[in-house]
């Protein structure tokens, strides 16, 4: 399984920009959570996400997206983004996040 | 012409801004229920506040016309929570 990280860890969209090719899973926040898989196209400063080549992991439960191939997801509704573990260097990410936290304090 | 759909509405996206407020033309709502799949016209022109938008998806017209809406059963979507 891929690495699951709450998005509060990603305090900079630059991190996401390095992921423009691999496939990852996205779970919009709602009582009935639905999981959208796709290839990351782009991310912006609000962590809004554009995905191409969508597939919904449970198409019987969620037929709403059957005819959608590309989508834009508002950052505020995303609960988790699941990334392939081998694409993430957690040590590097931790160091970078700590540096940024330090910079913000100053 | 792009058909876009958020949570339960389909329409043509005419405009948007940074907070994802949307201008949606020819919008019709796809009401899903466990007993039947119904489509109804809600409003010709909608202005939607960005807070209520979860996902904007581009509808592939080919796949969409192939869908048999009368046979799709699903639970209704919940409202947006942040």
From TrEMBL, chain A:
Occurrences of domain Sm (ranges): 14-83
Subcellular location: Nucleus
Coiled-coil region list: none
Domain of life per record: Eukaryota
Record GO biological process: mRNA splicing, via spliceosome
Pfam families assigned: LSM (PF01423)
Keywords of the record: mRNA processing, mRNA splicing, Nucleus, Ribonucleoprotein, RNA-binding, Spliceosome
GO molecular function, one term: RNA binding
Entries under CDD domains matching the protein: LSm2
Main location per the UniProt record: nucleus
Keyword Disulfide bond recorded: no
GO cellular component, as recorded: catalytic step 2 spliceosome; Lsm1-7-Pat1 complex; P-body; precatalytic spliceosome; U4/U6 x U5 tri-snRNP complex; U6 snRNP
Family label: Belongs to the snRNP Sm proteins family.
PANTHER family: SNRNP CORE PROTEIN FAMILY MEMBER, U6 SNRNA-ASSOCIATED SM-LIKE PROTEIN LSM2
Cited function: Binds specifically to the 3'-terminal U-tract of U6 snRNA.
Name of this chain's protein: U6 snRNA-associated Sm-like protein LSm2
Originating organism: Muntiacus reevesi
From TrEMBL, chain B:
Signal peptide annotation: none
Entry keyword annotation includes Acetylation: yes
Acetylation as UniProt keyword: yes
GO CC annotations on file: precatalytic spliceosome; U4/U6 x U5 tri-snRNP complex; U6 snRNP
Domain annotation Sm: ranges: 1-58
CDD domains assigned to the protein according to its UniProt record, in alphabetical order: LSm8 (cd01727)
One Pfam assignment: LSM
Keywords linked to the UniProt accession: Acetylation, mRNA processing, mRNA splicing, Nucleus, Ribonucleoprotein, RNA-binding, Spliceosome
Listed GO biological process terms: mRNA splicing, via spliceosome
Gene Ontology MF term list: mRNA binding
InterPro entries: Lsm8, LSM_dom_sf, PTHR15588, Sm_dom_euk/arc
Domain of life: Eukaryota
Subcellular location, record wording: Nucleus
Function recorded in the entry: Plays a role in pre-mRNA splicing as component of the U4/U6-U5 tri-snRNP complex that is involved in spliceosome assembly, and as component of the precatalytic spliceosome (spliceosome B complex). The heptameric LSM2-8 complex binds specifically to the 3'-terminal U-tract of U6 snRNA. Plays role in pre-mRNA splicing as component of the U4/U6-U5 tri-snRNP complex that is involved in spliceosome assembly, and as component of the precatalytic spliceosome (spliceosome B complex). The heptameric LSM2-8 complex binds specifically to the 3'-terminal U-tract of U6 snRNA.
Family statement drawn from the similarity comment of this UniProt entry: Belongs to the snRNP Sm proteins family.
Oligomer and partners: Component of the precatalytic spliceosome (spliceosome B complex). Component of the U4/U6-U5 tri-snRNP complex, a building block of the precatalytic spliceosome (spliceosome B complex). The U4/U6-U5 tri-snRNP complex is composed of the U4, U6 and U5 snRNAs and at least PRPF3, PRPF4, PRPF6, PRPF8, PRPF31, SNRNP200, TXNL4A, SNRNP40, SNRPB, SNRPD1, SNRPD2, SNRPD3, SNRPE, SNRPF, SNRPG, DDX23, CD2BP2, PPIH, SNU13, EFTUD2, SART1 and USP39, plus LSM2, LSM3, LSM4, LSM5, LSM6, LSM7 and LSM8. LSm subunits form a heteromer with a doughnut shape.
Protein name from the UniProt record: U6 snRNA-associated Sm-like protein LSm8
Organism: Muntiacus reevesi
Gene: LSM8
């Amino acid at each position: 399984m891929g690495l699951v990280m709450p998005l509060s860890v990603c305090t900079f969209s630059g991190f996401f920009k390095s992921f423009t090719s691999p496939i990852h899973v996205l779970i919009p926040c709602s009582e009935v959570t639905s999981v959208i898989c796709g290839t990351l196209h782009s991310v912006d400063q609000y962590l809004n996400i554009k995905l191409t080549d969508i597939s919904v992991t449970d198409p019987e439960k969620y037929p709403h997206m059957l005819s959608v191939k590309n989508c834009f997801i508002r950052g505020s509704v995303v609960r988790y983004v699941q990334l392939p573990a081998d694409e993430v260097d957690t040590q590097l990410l931790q160091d970078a996040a700590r540096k940024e936290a330090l910079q913000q304090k100053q | 012409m792009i058909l876009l759909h958020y949570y339960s509405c389909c329409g043509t996206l005419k405009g948007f801004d940074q907070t994802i407020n949307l201008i949606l033309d020819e919008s019709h709502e796809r009401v899903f229920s466990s007993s039947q799949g119904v489509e109804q016209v809600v409003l010709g022109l909608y202005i939607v506040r960005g807070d209520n938008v979860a996902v904007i998806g581009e509808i592939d017209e080919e796949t969409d016309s192939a869908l048999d809406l009368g046979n799709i059963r699903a639970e209704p979507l919940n409202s947006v929570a942040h």
